[in-house]
Amino acid sequence: MKQILLLTLSVLLLGTSCQNEKAVSNKSSLEIYADSLFQESVDSSQIAGGAILVFQNGEKLLKKSYGYASIELTVPMPENAQFEIGSVTKQFTAAAILKLVETKKLSLEDDFTDYIPFDTKGRKITINNLLNHTSGIPSYTEIGEFWDLSIQEHPRDSLVRLVERNDFLFEPNEALIYNNSAYFFLGLIIEKVTEQSYEEFLKQEFFEPLVMNSTNYCSNSKVVKNKVYGYNYSPNGLQQKPYLNHTWPYSAGSLCSTTEDLLIWMRALHTGKVLTEPMYQTMISPDNLNDGTSVSYAKGLVNFSNFGHNEIAHGGGIHGFLSDTRYFPEEDLYIICLINTTGPRGGSFFAEEITWKLLDKKEYKQVELDSDFTNIQGTYTGAVRGANVSLEVKSIKNGITLQAVGNDQIDTLKVYIGNNTWMDGNDKITIENNEFRKNNIYNYYILEKEK
After folding, report:
1. Do the beta carbons of residue 120 and residue 166 sit within 8 Å?
2. What pLDDT score was predicted for residue 25?
3. pLDDT tens digits along 52-84
4. Which residue segments constitute the domains of the chain, with CATH numbers given?
5. How crowded is residue 106: how many other Cβ atoms within 10 Å of its Cβ?
6. Cα 8 to chain center, whole Å?
7. Angle (CA) 410 415 421, round 5°
């Protein structure tokens, strides 16, 4: 009898082992890689959890959720979890404005003050300037006073007046600095023109026609199925996210969605189901600055070469959440990643890792240094996002070094591509004619050399 029991037990264990091996062997190499990335990040408390969806050529290569929707209650991340998507909202706002352009309700060249009272001190700022971050208006999230306002409930005009009291960062279309104020204003323009709330217009034009049933304007009070909690990373462990009243992110960052709904949206947008072809091209095509300089930010989307691959994308960050949506048109590849933690590993971290698991990374071609660059040494000063900076540039044997005044960190630029231009990842830095120019995809900074 004992031998029979042992034999039966052995057969059962062998069967279970074979099933487990079969389950593992059925996983793709992409899924195994994603599992390891996410599990290590959850286990080390760098994230609470997340969701990822990878879609290519009409096929889902990966759709999976990891970690926890609620750490306190030990609730696993649901399959169709809803996250706050932050600035991924901006592509919806841009598309809504372009819908109104299509129907001739407004023009991209309209002065935005035709719709919103705002003292520009004599400058003409167009709706197009708002869409592509070239207005020079300061971003409210970079104004210290805003953060007292951010937890309160007030009419939205109070934020307009707060921004109005602050100085311009640059003259319109002279540079490009990422700007939440601009997209907040665009939401007010949509409401003025349509006589509907921003949420109602998006629901009517996009969410209902595309059957995006899990996408809505985020709420501080409503109970929403599968809506996950947000957290902040700290070296001492994950913390609950701070409070933010959703009056303020608004059309710059107040939508909530899922990976599935965002795939529906992205496929519809990029296959002509949202805008006409001319208007779609307007949305994804970056404009030039006044001096003819090309940039990478279009309208609610960036459009650039990511190590040799054309990428149309946008990320998002809001208290407790980091997101990333990217589309590679030449490969017909979509990658969507949503994380319910702000910290070093957001949606872009995982999306970037998955990108290079699927595509070949083409490094920028270096050329020989054609100068000792002593003539570009000096201090360069100007506006960047959230600050005015002074940057020390020094020539060294194999490149140049950059050091922000008052900061101990020294960066070395080594990938020289010619014409006084270096690559730092995908960022392009050109130093000539007493200017330091940096295109970092979401911004285009111009710093002037001090005399």
Report:
1. no
2. 59
3. 999 999 999 999 999 999 999 999 999 999 999
4. 86-358 (3.40.710.10), 374-449 (2.40.128.50)
5. 19
6. 56
7. 90
